[in-house]
Amino acid sequence: IHALLIGINDYSNLGVGGLCGSVADVCRVKEFLVNKLHVPEAHIRTLLDKEATQDGIISSVKGLADLNTINMGDPILIFYAGHGGTLPKPPESSWAVNNSNIECLVAHDARYNDTEETWVEGVVPDLVFASLLHRLAEVKGDNITVILDCCHSGSGAR
Fold this sequence. Notes:
Layout: E1 2-7, H1 22-35, E2 44-48, H2 54-66, E3 76-81, E4 84-88, E5 101-113, E6 118-125, H3 126-140, E7 144-149
Parallel strand pairs: 1-2, 1-3, 3-7
Antiparallel strand pairs: 4-5, 5-6
C-alpha cells in the first residue's frame, strides 16, 4: 500500500475558518496503516496544514504517478480531511456539470472573496482532482481508494 494523507486544521487566510479534527484524523489513519496494516512509513506521504497548499496537493498527487516504488496495480490510498467548497463553473467551459457550480478541495492557502462570495485561489477543483486521478490510474492502475472527508465532495473523483 502507498498512501497520500492530507489534513488541514489551520488555514493561512483568516477568512477561512479553522478545523479541529482533520490533522488528528490523518494521524489516526497513518497510525492504522503503520501499526495494523504494517505499511512502511516510507510508503506514506503526509501533508499537514501549511504543507497542504494548492501546489502541494496537486504536486503530491502527480508525484504518486512518478514513484518507482509503486508498481502497476499496487493499492494506493488518498485521504483528504479539511474544508471542501463550491465555486462558479468557469465561463464557456466544457466542465460537465448540471448547474453553475463546481466543487473543490480547499487548500491551506485558499482565499475566499466575501464580496463576490467565491473562492479566488488556493483550491483544487473537482475536475482537476479527477484528471490527476485519471493520470495516476493510467500509470499505476486503478487500485486507488480516495476518501474525501469534507463538504462538497460528491464530484471529487468524477
